[in-house]
Design brief:
single chain, 53 residues, mainly alpha, 2 helices, rod-shaped
């Protein structure tokens, strides 16, 4: 059930309206974006450490 996997942690209730669905998509996107941004930041930090150590 891929759609349920995309909902924020701990939430398994399907949204009842399109507005609720939109909010869930935005929240899931924000969480994914934050994780991706942190991952990229970590990689850049590791490269800098490798080059200058």
């Amino acid at each position: 059930m891929g759609f349920l996997d995309k909902l924020p942690d701990g939430e398994t209730n399907l949204p009842t309206t399109v507005k609720d669905l939109g909010e869930q998509v935005v929240k899931a996107g924000q969480k994914t974006g934050e994780k991706l941004g942190q991952g990229i930041s970590d990689v850049i930090d590791e490269i800098i450490d490798f080059l200058f150590d």
